[in-house]
Amino acid sequence: MQLHVTHTTRYAYDEPVIYGLQKIRLRPVGSHMQSVVDWNLTVTGGKIECSYCDHHGNQTDLVSITPEGDAVEITARGTIITENTHGVFGKIYGRVPLYLLRMPTLTTEAGPKIKAFARTLDKHDDLLAGLHALSEAILKAVPYESGHTAADTTAEQALAGGKGVCQDHAQIFIAAARLAGLPARYVSGYLMMDDQVDQDASHAWAEVHLDTLGWVGFDVSNGISPDERYVRIAVGRDAKEASPIEGMRMGSADESMIVSLQVQQ
């Protein structure tokens, strides 16, 4: 499937920014699941200082805000040809060892509620079936609804709150899988929706490593494994490490953000 993506993020500040630096993970990497036909990253109100491949294999750019500027706009645009591998990314490895992906992070630390959910896996002789059951149980316990969690909400907090978005679903799933001793990671990217071109945000799902298949994806929010409608952008131990944009700035300016995203054939 050929997908066209246009993703613009605009940050505005209520007073000039002395210094600001953004870490951008908005360049897809080619694999057996996707071929990058063309892709461009443009910046208004700043410039790309350097580009590199991080330890997870993510193509990363560092973008500085123009000194004394009051806005910066970052647009990623391009065309991807995707393949349906039924969620199986396979036995593809980078510099990050599997044992590190079994360890919790601040936002994927399992508390009592997630520990109870992890027992879902014990009820199934087939591990893959157990993981799908875990995904279904998480979505039932935490229906998709925006406005109840934030970027720094932990998996345990999201589960306790009973409502969340794809970031929360992925991190709960990751925390539970790691409790079972499975390497798990967070994936950020895009999803072409069947009835909607314009979207409010990018998408996220989880991957778990199985000895038999390698990395397998689970989109808890939609109750499926990723197919040809998905575009992978970045991976990490949690949402922060795979975030499309993260950064810092000097000064006391308040920030507002507007996101515009279109994913279509």
Automatic annotation (TrEMBL):
Q: Which protein, by its recorded name, is this? A: Transglutaminase-like superfamily protein
Q: What is the lineage of its organism?
A: Bacteria, Pseudomonadati, Pseudomonadota, Alphaproteobacteria, Rhodobacterales
Q: Which PANTHER family match?
A: BLR5614 PROTEIN-RELATED (PTHR33490), SLL1049 PROTEIN (PTHR33490:SF6)
Lineage top rank: taxon: Bacteria
Which Pfam family, giving just one, matches this sequence?
Bact_transglu_N
Residue stretches making up the Transglutaminase-like domain:
158-222
